[in-house]
Specification:
By secondary structure, this protein is of the alpha/beta class. It has a single domain, classed as TIM Barrel (Alpha-Beta Barrel). The chain contains 14 helices and twelve strands. An eight-stranded parallel beta sheet has the order 3-12-11-8-7-6-5-4. A two-stranded antiparallel ribbon has the order 1-2. The chain has a two-stranded antiparallel sheet with strand order 9-10. β7, α8 and β8 form a beta-alpha-beta unit. It is globular and about 50 Å long. It binds flavin mononucleotide. Flavin mononucleotide binds next to β4, β5 and α11.
Length: about 325
């Protein structure tokens, strides 16, 4: 029997498929369905810095539904402003999730700056979370704030959260850094046990008739995985933090690619919003079949086999490949 088990942040997981933060996580019933479908762990939806600081204006990013969602998924969408039940309700949800599930429960804090709100990391730990995912989401729009200052702000936050608690902290971040490998390394040095690549930044659009800025939320496709594969493959064996993919994991093949690049786990959200929670079981079964058909004994054996250090042409992940790719296009 193929061994699908993996480890992430020191947690023993029975396979690498982990549903990531989304409105699906608001209901303990959904969490149980994920566990029943074979999910190895769950990442709860986020508690936001702004909420803790009593300013909830930043929630819009995550809250507008699109017609791509199936009716089942659509019914999970909350009214604006009701994404989670505020700080106290969130802690209660962590307790309930822990009581209901046998798989690890990873809570999520979403913010960008150090401050009093970081106390909630400790309260989340006390509520029983097995680990904490810190989602750092910031749009650096000030012309007088340079990249070094923004990076220092992130690192301060990681240091503050990791010194506050003893459960492992994993950091979900975007790729909008000019020296991403260095930033990943410094975040790990600041105390992160894991790196989650990558946050999706939801882009505002214009409504031309009403001259309004509108927020829409499009689900991902497998195409988005490629950016993640590149960076996981580059970072594998260069940082000691565990690597997780988020963004573009829709199929068993996407999970397999993520692991081959070097990820310990592959997170999925859009696929579950689109197909329903049962899709976890489909991906798991197809992954098992693939590994058996290709005579892999375990997920561990596969991990990193397509990382930059393992492939015969490491330059394929870097600039050297750029000219070749452009030349390969046939009119
Ligand atoms: C409706 C919706 C709500 C989300 N809420 C959160 C959240 O609360 N915290 C967070 O860190 N990520 C959140 N995400 C991001 C997902 O966890 C995930 O990182 C992203 O959708 C990319 O993965 P995917 O391609 O599998 O969807 C949300 C995504 C969606 C679509």
């Amino acid at each position: 029997m193929t061994d699908l088990s993996t480890t992430y942040l020191g947690l023993q997981l029975k396979n690498p498929i982990v549903p990531s933060s989304s409105p699906l996580m608001q209901k303990v019933d959904n969490l149980k369905k994920m566990q029943d479908a074979g999910a190895a762990a769950v990442i709860l939806h986020s508690l936001f810095e702004e909420q803790i600081e009593q300013e909830s204006h930043a929630l819009d990013h995550f809250l507008s539904a699109t017609s791509e969602f199936n009716p089942e998924a659509q019914s999970y969408f909350p009214e604006l402003g009701a994404y989670n039940r505020g700080p106290e309700g969130y802690l209660d949800h962590v307790r309930k999730a822990k009581a209901a599930l046998a798989i690890p429960v990873i809570a999520s804090l979403n913010g960008y700056s150090s401050g009093g709100w970081v106390d909630y990391a400790r309260q989340i730990e006390q509520a029983g979370a097995d680990a904490l995912e810190l989602n750092m989401y910031y749009i650096a729009a000030e012309t007088d704030l340079d990249s070094a200052a923004v990076e220092e702000m992130y690192l301060d936050l990681v240091r503050d959260v990791t010194t506050e608690i003893t459960i492992p902290v994993t950091v979900k971040l975007s790729h909008h850094f000019s020296a991403f490998a260095n930033m990943a390394w410094r975040i790990q040095r600041a105390g992160a046990r894991g790196l989650v690549l990558f946050n999706r930044f939801y882009q505002p659009d214009f409504d031309l008739e009403n001259l309004e800025v509108v927020h829409g939320l499009d689900l991902s496709s497998s195409y988005e995985l490629r950016l993640r594969l590149r960076w996981i493959a580059i970072l594998y064996d260069r940082v000691s933090a565990d690597l997780a993919v988020t963004g573009g994991v829709h199929t068993a093949e996407d999970v397999i690619k993520s692991v081959m690049a070097g990820a310990s786990i592959a997170m999925t959200t859009s696929a579950l919003l689109h197909h329903g929670i049962g899709h976890v079981a489909t991906m798991l079964a197809e992954m098992r079949d693939w590994l058996e058909a290709h005579e892999y004994e375990s997920v561990r054996q596969m991990r990193g086999s397509m990382s930059q250090r393992a492939v015969p042409h490491p330059a394929a992940f870097e600039r050297a490949n750029y000219a070749r790719v452009l030349q390969s296009y046939r009119l």
